[in-house]
């Protein structure tokens, strides 16, 4: 097969169906950009989980005098020194516990003022209204239930709270957005495949005379199909290149510059350039193979004599 003939046929096909080729390029670019974006979002969520789950604490809040009057869990009164000592001793014996730190009422009041000093409620609070607490760092953040089972409802304990639960809500939202992006990607992918099939069939129909002559002179089916398959592959590859460009620009302008989220949200550990660059070969390979295979199966029946 002469490469010059194949290349010339590719050029002819792309020029004849310029509008549909443009539609294929755009739909492939958008669908693969969403595909790459969803992969990066998944990596970002995993990175954030690994970063934040390693820092979450379980908090055991102890009863104070105010709780003894209003909270059923503290009906037996404020926590005593013996109860606090026993709670700490039991925590330090547990194999799932990494470290235990104590926060007094004065420390809790100070931290509250630092975080919510502008709140109208802050001016009416006093240190004796704050709760003492133990902050527990677990060796495995998934073992929260072990602490909750051991201390929830115990004398002197007002509540056991897991910060991981708050993070789970955030990560659930992010994963929901990721699923929505994947659903949109699937829709765009179907549209792209339909456009590819229609573009290839229109191109084949417009050149039915040439393909008929090629059949009469004994050309093989693959020789006849090759230019059409290559047309689809080239259009898809252009779309894949655009998708890669979208991802690179998005990473550059959203995280590093422009919005500069890496500076404004310093508490979030964003994915690096290595995560983006490792996705680009997959996107390019998909953009090349997907249209080529779609064209191949579409032409098997259409060009069959």
Automatic annotation (TrEMBL):
Which residues are listed as membrane-spanning?
21-41, 179-200, 236-255, 276-299
FtsX extracellular domain: residues covered: 56-160
Q: How does it sit in the membrane?
A: Multi-pass membrane protein
Q: Which Pfam families match?
A: FtsX, FtsX_ECD
Where is this chain's protein located in or outside the cell? Answer: Cell membrane
Q: Which InterPro entries match?
A: ABC3_permease_C, FtsX, FtsX_actino, FtsX_ECD
Q: Which GO terms describe its cellular component?
A: plasma membrane
Q: Which family does it belong to?
A: Belongs to the ABC-4 integral membrane protein family. FtsX subfamily.
- What does the protein in this record do? Part of the ABC transporter FtsEX involved in cellular division.
Q: What is the name of the protein in this document?
A: Cell division protein FtsX
């Amino acid at each position: 097969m002469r490469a010059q003939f194949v290349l010339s046929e590719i050029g002819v096909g792309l020029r004849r169906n310029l509008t549909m080729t443009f539609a294929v390029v755009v739909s492939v670019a958008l669908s693969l950009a969403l595909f790459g974006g969803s992969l990066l979002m998944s990596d970002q969520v995993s990175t954030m989980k690994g970063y934040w789950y390693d820092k979450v604490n379980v908090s055991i809040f102890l009863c104070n005098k105010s709780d003894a009057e209003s909270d059923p869990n503290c009906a037996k009164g404020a926590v005593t020194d013996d109860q606090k000592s026993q709670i700490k001793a039991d925590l330090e014996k547990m194999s799932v516990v990494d470290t235990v730190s104590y926060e007094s009422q004065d420390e809790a009041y100070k931290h509250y003022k630092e975080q919510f000093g502008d709140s109208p409620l802050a001016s009416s609070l006093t240190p004796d209204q704050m709760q003492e607490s133990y902050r527990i760092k677990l060796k495995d953040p998934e073992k929260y239930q072990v602490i909750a089972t051991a201390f929830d409802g115990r004398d002197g304990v007002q509540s056991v709270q897991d910060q991981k639960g708050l993070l789970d809500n955030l990560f659930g939202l992010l994963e929901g957005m990721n699923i929505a992006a994947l659903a949109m990607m699937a829709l765009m992918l179907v549209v792209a495949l339909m456009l590819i099939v229609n573009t290839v069939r229109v191109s084949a129909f417009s050149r039915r005379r040439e393909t008929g002559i090629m059949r009469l002179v004994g050309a093989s089916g693959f020789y006849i199909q090759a230019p059409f398959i290559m047309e689809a592959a080239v259009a898809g590859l252009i779309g894949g290149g655009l998708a890669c460009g979208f991802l690179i620009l998005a990473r550059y302008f959203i995280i590093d510059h422009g919005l500069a989220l890496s500076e404004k949200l310093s508490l979030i550990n964003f994915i690096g350039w290595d995560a983006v660059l490792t996705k680009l070969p997959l996107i390019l390979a998909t953009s090349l193979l997907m249209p080529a295979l779609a064209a191949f199966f579409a032409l098997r029946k259409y060009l069959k004599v």
